[in-house]
């Protein structure tokens, strides 16, 4: 049996924070980045866990992210807020904007946060979960860089373009989904490549435009959207709303900026928060109670709610710690020693 090491969430957070601090990130940036990476590992989302450290560090060393930048909140009192990340990683920018976004949504019913000039590497569910924790429903979306072919196309043009939604549940973990508009996250293909395993059919096409199950060919070619033309349309919507509309880079522009897909992408992000109470006011009935009736009906058919496995993994990690393989521990120690 492979040797494993079990660390508490706090212990792993300290290690990851130290790695980023030693590599030039400010305390604000290091703590925010470490928090979302450890959250991925805690929730058994390996493709967004400590695997992401290497790409973040490569991006810092390439000079494509500003590790000491202080995000700036721009607030004119309207329902539209903006945070200029100033070229830094996105988690710190969101952390600064989220409390103001939440209060504005509670006051006005709906509010939006545009994060500009950020380097994005993480899942979006930590962000929508932060807002559900404040009693709000939330949508988050962002482009990436061109690695996905549009439906009917043969070349990468769109990003993996994730979309996340969260709904607060007073006595349960929130209802949350977070998925790429590609069939799978690019990180999943990379993990298959590292493990020497083929990817499932229908995930990608090779450089010649034909279907492939070889992760090397997939990474050199293009990923496919989920649901064919439907995923392609949603992905394009995200390019428009979280790219063109907020005055930031679309996926093709982000790839031009970086010149490679080996670094974390640079672009913007759009987060929209909703107050269910404000929207339901005067209509009768409690929106949260009505939502629970829907969730109960779903579960009553034997179906599961999205993120249930992730929340179960979180409970286990908080109770028993996060188990890392010998290879994963060696990777962390190598990062610590190299700084």
From TrEMBL:
Record key words, sorted: Oxidoreductase
Q: Which domain of life is it from?
A: Bacteria
Query: What Pfam families does this protein's entry cite?
Result: Ldh_2
Q: Which InterPro entries match?
A: Mal/L-sulf/L-lact_DH-like_ah (IPR043144), Mal/L-sulf/L-lact_DH-like_NADP (IPR043143), Mal/L-sulfo/L-lacto_DH-like_sf (IPR036111), Malate/L-lactate_DH-like (IPR003767)
As for family, the record states:
Belongs to the LDH2/MDH2 oxidoreductase family.
The protein in question is named Ldh family oxidoreductase
Give the originating organism.
Paracoccus aurantius
């Amino acid at each position: 049996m492979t040797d494993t090491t079990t660390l508490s969430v706090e212990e792993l957070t300290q290690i990851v924070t130290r790695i980023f601090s030693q590599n030039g990130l400010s305390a604000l940036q290091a703590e925010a980045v470490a928090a979302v990476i450890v959250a991925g590992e805690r929730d058994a989302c390996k493709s967004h866990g400590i695997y992401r450290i290497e790409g973040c560090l490569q991006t810092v060393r390439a000079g494509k992210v500003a590790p000491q930048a202080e995000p700036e909140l721009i607030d004119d009192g309207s329902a539209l807020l903006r945070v200029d990340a100033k070229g830094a990683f996105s988690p710190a920018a969101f952390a600064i904007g989220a409390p103001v976004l939440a209060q504005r949504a509670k006051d006005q019913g709906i509010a939006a946060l545009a994060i500009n000039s950020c380097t994005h590497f993480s899942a979006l569910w930590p962000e929508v979960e932060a807002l559900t924790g404040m009693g709000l429903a939330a949508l988050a979306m962002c482009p990436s860089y061109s690695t996905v072919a549009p439906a009917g196309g043969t070349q990468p043009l769109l990003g993996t373009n994730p979309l996340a939604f969260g709904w607060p549940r007073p006595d349960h973990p929130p209802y949350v989904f977070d998925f790429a508009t590609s069939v799978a996250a690019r990180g999943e293909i990379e993990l298959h490549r590292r493990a020497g395993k083929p990817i499932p059919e229908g995930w990608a096409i090779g450089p010649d435009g034909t279907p492939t199950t070889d992760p090397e060919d997939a990474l050199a070619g293009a990923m496919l959207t989920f649901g064919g033309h439907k995923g392609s349309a949603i992905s394009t919507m995200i390019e428009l709303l979280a790219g063109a509309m907020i005055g930031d880079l679309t996926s093709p522009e982000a790839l031009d900026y970086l010149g490679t897909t080996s670094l974390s992408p640079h672009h913007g992000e759009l987060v929209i928060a909703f107050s269910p109470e404000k929207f339901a006011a005067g209509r009768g009935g409690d929106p949260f109670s009505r939502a629970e009736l829907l969730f109960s009906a779903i579960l009553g058919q034997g179906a599961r709610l999205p993120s249930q496995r992730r929340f179960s993994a979180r409970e286990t990690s908080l109770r028993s710690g996060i188990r890392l393989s010998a290879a994963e521990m060696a990777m962390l120690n190598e990062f610590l020693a190299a700084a």
